């Protein structure tokens, strides 16, 4: 099945990204005062963690037919 390698790769990538975001948040929390840029960066990290959570939820709610899910997940991204 072609879908499983993609899922494993995607999960691995997300796991790594979560780890990196958490590490950055730990470093952020170790400092007392934060600049506006640091606060904005933390908000962006928080938003990204929420996006990852939604992405994982979508992976759980995939259609019964793996071919349909595979096609949906592989659509090219178009920048706005």
Structure description:
By secondary structure, the protein is mostly helical. 75% of the residues lie in helices and 0% in strands. The protein has one domain (3-70). The chain contains three helices and no strands. 0% of the residues are buried. The mean pLDDT is 82.
Secondary structure layout:
Elements: H1 3-29, H2 36-60, H3 66-73
Helix pairs in contact: 1-2
**Strand percent estimate:** under 5%
Mean pLDDT: 82
Total helix count? 3
What would you call the structural class? Answer: mainly alpha
Task: Tell the overall outline.
Answer: elongated
Order of helices and strands: HHH
Strand segment tally: 0
Distance between the termini: 33 Å
Rg, Cα atoms, Å: 16 Å
Largest sheet: none
Portion of residues within helices: over 70%
Point out poorly predicted stretches: none
Count of distinct structural domains: 1
Could you name the key traits of this structure?
single chain; 80 residues; mainly alpha; 3 helices; elongated
Outline:
The chain contains three helices and no strands. By secondary structure, the chain is mainly alpha-helical.
């Amino acid at each position: 099945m072609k879908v499983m390698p993609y899922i494993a790769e995607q999960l691995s990538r997300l796991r790594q990204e979560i780890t990196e975001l958490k590490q950055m948040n730990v470093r952020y929390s170790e400092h007392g005062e934060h600049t506006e840029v640091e606060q904005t960066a933390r908000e962006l990290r928080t938003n990204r963690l929420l996006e990852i959570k939604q992405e994982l939820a979508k992976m759980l709610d995939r259609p019964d037919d793996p071919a349909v899910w595979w096609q949906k997940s592989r659509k090219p991204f178009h920048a706005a």
